[in-house]
Amino acid sequence: MPLITDLHIHSRFSRACSRSLDLPHIEAWCQLKGIDLVATSDFTHPTWFKELTEQLIEVDEGVYEVRDEFREMAADVIVPSSCVRPVRFLCSTEVSLIYKRGDKVRKVHHVILAPNLETVALINVELDKRGNIKSDGRPILGLDSEELLKILLDISPDIQMIPAHVWTPWFAIFGSKSGFDSVEECFGELSDHICALETGLSSDPLMNWRLSQLDKYVLVSSSDAHSPSKLGREATLFDTECTYPAVLNALRHDHSKVLGTIEFFPEEGKYHADGLRAEKLCLEPDETLACDGISPRTGKKITVGVLHRVNKLADRKMGTRPDSARDFWHIIPLVEIVSEILGVGVASKRVQSSYFSLLKKIGPEFYILKDAPIEDLMAVDPRVGEAIARMRDGKVIVQPGYDGEFGVVKLFKPNELRNHGSQAKLF
């Protein structure tokens, strides 16, 4: 069985994050989703780091589980027996770097993987000397990316930095607003220490394969979750043991051990297309070029999205698959599928009740979305089976996201669901 991982999430100490993002709730929701290995998140924050050391116990090299006495904190989340599984934590966090390089202010986010909590303690000592790590779970530091990488490698050669959501306009290594045109430009002499790139919600491997310069990197995906229910929006699958050395070896050396990624349809990401959210203006890259990057309505500068930025740096046509490519699977979160079928919001009681009923009857969300036989899903509810069959075939209706506005991905045309109404068994 593949090891399903989500190595970039947040805790309740990060800005604009749910108060429910504590370790027991993260564990419970990983079981519901089908995640085996998850990030500790936010390990630089002093209070959160204290909770990590108190509530986690190391069960294998570099991986941890929640201590039994703390699990009752998530008693409000009922995990059906069909979803119960061990969930382990790996030390991982995100940092935000804002610094001047050349004539441009750079704003770049990176994920940091660490081999154990003892090493995390050393990282925190060094970063505390160089910035405020107390005010936010994702600290903002005035360090150059290359400088931070050198600090980390001096602490331990087993620390791994991964550029986060690499195409996001405002805070990413290739971002249109403040990024670079290559990994080498960002990391200089230390660029050989970068082995993986996180694609982010607004791009997928198909888009990244258009750049030959990225062939040598492992493409990984994570949820960047700001609430427990968002865990596993994207994930990376490994064919390894559930230990830190095994995951690190797969990322650095044996890329065959990285089986692939579970991905959003990139159009659903909130920076996929160009546009201006305040004006409800969504544009394709050629439309932005035609108006010189300026809104024809107000004269404001258009936010250049991920697709446009990929087009600019690409040296291949869409559809190219390099020899180094790993598999990937597009998904729509199950709660969104149920919401579309029922015609009510994702937070409604009907949707939530139906979501948990599906998990109880069939198994964890990833199994339902990716692996469950369609005939089994049809037996539970024909609309669910039809929706997931369409999703797996890529037969979706998309309205792309732009300038911070999430896109919309649908599986049924208006009024089409009425044809399935008499067959409903679950809802």
Describe the 3D structure.
The two termini are 31 Å apart. The strands form five sheets. The chain has an eight-stranded mixed beta sheet with strand order 3-4-5-2-1-12-13-16. It is 30% helix and 19% strand. The protein has helices at residues 23-33, 46-55, 117-130, 145-155, 183-187, 205-208, 244-252, 285-290, 306-313, 334-342, 349-362, 365-371, 374-380, 382-393, and strands at residues 3-6, 37-39, 56-60, 63-66, 88-90, 92-101, 104-113, 140-141, 160-163, 196-198, 218-220, 235-238, 258-264, 274-276, 281-283, 327-331, 397-399, 408-410. The longest helix is centred in the first third of the chain and has 14 residues, at 117-130.
Largest sheet: 8 strands, mixed
Radius of gyration: 21 Å
Structural class estimated from helices and strands: alpha/beta
Q: DSSP helix count?
A: 14
**Range of helix content:** 25-40%
How are strands sequenced across the largest beta sheet? 3-4-5-2-1-12-13-16
Overall geometry comes to globular
Give the low-pLDDT segments.
422-426
Question: Could you give the count of β-strands?
Answer: 18
- Measured between the Cα atoms of the first and last residue, the distance is 31 Å
Strand content: 15-25%
**Average predicted confidence as pLDDT:** 96
Topology:
Blueprint lengths: L2 E4 L16 H11 L3 E3 L6 H10 E5 L2 E4 L21 E3 L1 E10 L2 E10 L3 H14 L9 E2 L3 H11 L4 E4 L19 H5 L8 E3 L6 H4 L9 E3 L14 E4 L5 H9 L5 E7 L9 E3 L4 E3 L1 H6 L15 H8 L13 E5 L2 H9 L6 H14 L2 H7 L2 H7 L1 H12 L3 E3 L8 E3 L17
Helix pairs in contact: 10-11, 13-14
Features:
427 residues, alpha/beta, 4-stranded mixed sheet
